[in-house]
Design a protein that fits this description.
This protein is of the alpha+beta class and 131 residues long. The protein contains four helices and six strands; from the N terminus they run ααββαββββα.
Length: 131
Amino acid sequence: MNKPVDVVTGYLGAFLRGDPDEIASFVAEEFHNEHLSSIASSCIGRDEYRRRLPGFLADFAERSYSVLDMVDQDRESHAEVVVRYDFSAVYQGFSISIPGVMWFTVRDGLIAKRMDVWDGGTFLSQIATAD
């Protein structure tokens, strides 16, 4: 079985390749994708998450997650991995760089939950057009 850190880094790396099926293969059937940014939306279930991925991948070209720090802790029934990251991409022609933190729950080699906290204000200011 893969280490929880390997599952999380594999998941984040899959975004570089942009294959929705590969990305979704890292998450559990009951996956809970919780976004705490006011301009993002959450979802529950691998199927719903997979359905949303093509739109995200199309909107954010040349995307990558740079891991700045990572902490993991084994629990009795699962592991928790916390990642401080910088997300870079091109959104509607604008280069963006957004700091954030993701808290993963990994159970049985799959991501059961991802809680993502990122700065929506930073994103909005980077895509604002000058008049």
